[in-house]
Amino acid sequence: MKLNTLTLAILAVSSAALAQDQEHEHPDPTEVITITANPLGKTALESTQPVSIISGDELKQRHAHSLGETLSSEPGINNTHFANVAGSPIVRGLGGPRVKITQNGLDTGDVSRGSPDHAVTTETSTAEQIEVLRGPATLLYGSGAIGGVINVVDNRIPSEPIYGLQGNVNGSLSSNNDNKEASYDLQVGNGTWALYTDAFIRDASDYETASFINDEGERVDSVENSFVEAQGGTLGVSYQFDNGFFGLSYQGLSQDYGIPGHGHHEEEHEADHEEEHSNEVHEEELHEAHGPYANLEQDRVQIAGQWRSPFSGIEQVDFRGALTDYQHQEIEEDFVATQFENQQKEVRLTARHQKLAGWSGAIGWQWDISDKSAIGDEAFTPDTSRRTQGLFWVVEQEFGAHHVDLGARYERTALASEDWQLNTFSAVSASAGYLYHFDKHTSVSVNLSHAERAPSGTEVFSNGNHFATRTYELGLGYELHEETSGEYHIETAEHRIETERSNNLDLGVHYETDSFHANVNVFYNRVDDFIYDDFVGLTSDQLHGDEDHDEHQHEEHEHEEHAHGKALQVVQFSQLDAELYGYELELDWQLSDAWSVHSFSDYTRAKQRDGGNLARIPAQRLGAEVRYQAQSWDGSLGYTRYFSQDKVAVNESETDAYGLLNARVNMYPNWLANYGATLYLKGENLTNQLGLVHSSYLKEEAPVMGRQFQAGVSITF
């Protein structure tokens, strides 16, 4: 892998600092916070798998509308960047159905894993912490976590006694897209009963960028149809008894957001409807959007409980369950073009047992069912049901300075659609981890895992137009056969669909003193039967459906393509062997009581084992930030360089390098000290750079946000 000069310089600084011998540890506070995603109650320092936790002021400073944008500066994590309206985390080059996104350990229940224009339904403005598990985490969370887990944690069901009143209130205003945002979370209790409530509201217009040429050849300085209107709230209650607790919560969420680069209609098609859609009131109802927009709604009920020392041999039993009702409509010209729905139920039961031959551990059972449906222009996947059950067992033991983790999981997943017979997949995963403390400053870790993933419904059953990605998607269950010159017939595939099988090796070094902190992770991931979207070099007007898809459906596809202005590139889901490798580096150096330097770098190389590159893999990054801490204020100035990406797949263009300069000032006025108040001002992309995000399907149409200033207040009580 290539390392530029600046990366090598930082590594040299790291080596010099590692040679210092300090007498006392000064751990990062986030590294002694318990990882709720782990049933054994570990901290990040005790984990053999690379884990990081973002919480407190750091989480407030990073918070953005989408989860992907909130985590985009975390080493090893990138953003799918569907403009600013939707964004999902990419972990070490893997995203979509390979990264599990959970709310308090349970699947979010949305449809964000199937398309980059579908929003993730977590809310970070009211979260307590976000846990990032890099690499396969299939043991605890199933085959959908073959790339990693992002767990958003809040206290909607209080698990500890609460006395009195406590909470947070936040508000901010932004210059670039006129974003106005406010949120609060509040907890009150008497030690036995606890009540939790939160709410947020967000309203943003189209965002501005540095000047660029859009796909119509026009020079513009904003991303059309990138508005966001979102609001939601949660109410939860819990009861504490001598040996545990039990509680439930309800969350309601609503979002309207534009879908940039989607559904560009021909002038003649627009003219046919000009008279029908010309009144100003209607335009206001569409939030002054210039194109299609999504209307998203979700209702979610969660249940959680814990029973400590229930009976002999079991130290603790934890129960979690969620019932999620999700839908979103994609609306064009005052009619619902497509409607997506998901009804999902999930139960997790985990029992932590007493030591067996010196091994502490936990055994668990997970049950998850999902029924998804789609109706309309972009219903490229038929109604699909998924039924999953999994059993897992994880154990650990200390041998002096040596720590060993072992675990295994067995899972069965059944996929079915209205046109297909039942497909059942079995997945077996196992891992072994080793952590060694050389001394109180230095530790090394090794984690070896074998993980298997059942394909998603989209990857198997898709067969239709997907305008958000400007493709015609064809799942693993279909194959193309040439009829005549230039014409192709879609038929049901006869080949066997395999589970993905990942063999992943992680090596980590952690070093900690009073003045220096370093984390270095190196990984290698070999994936057999990797499922990828292959651009086959055809367009949708060259396709004919099979006998099961009648002539009417084919005519409907042709009409939709005409309405959207052009034929779509055909993408065929296929399987091949792949490998991914790279590193994550994070350094903190305390220069004095007031001054410190933070830096990071990450890199992922992803390729097919028989030659060629995987698509939309983020480029190498290198960032540094200088921080100053005074008595009543602190500030920072940072720069992140996104290098060019020239390791591209077939029919994928290279992406130029760019850099972002950011600054922040936090003030803690004495006259607000009793309210735990922070006033802040931050500036992002201060030099107004044009940045194209290589991992984005809208790379050319939706660059990163231009220069922006944000002012806000945060109050903790």
UniProtKB/TrEMBL annotation:
Signal peptide location: 1-19
PROSITE patterns referenced in this protein's UniProt entry, alphabetically: TONB_DEPENDENT_REC_3
UniProt domain TonB-dependent receptor-like beta-barrel: residue ranges: 323-686
Membrane topology: Multi-pass membrane protein
Protein species of origin: Idiomarina piscisalsi
Family: Belongs to the TonB-dependent receptor family.
Subcellular location: Cell outer membrane
Key words, A-Z: Cell outer membrane, Membrane, Signal, TonB box, Transmembrane, Transmembrane beta strand, Transport
Domain TonB-dependent receptor plug: 45-149
One Pfam family in the UniProt entry: Plug
PANTHER family: TONB-DEPENDENT OUTER MEMBRANE RECEPTOR, TONB-DEPENDENT RECEPTOR NMB0964-RELATED
InterPro entries membership: Beta-barrel_TonB, Beta-barrel_TonB_sf, Plug_dom, Plug_dom_sf, TonB-dep_rcpt-like
UniProt feature, compositional bias: Basic and acidic residues: 263-288, 543-564
Region Disordered, residue ranges: 257-288, 542-564
Protein name per Swiss-Prot or TrEMBL: TonB-dependent receptor
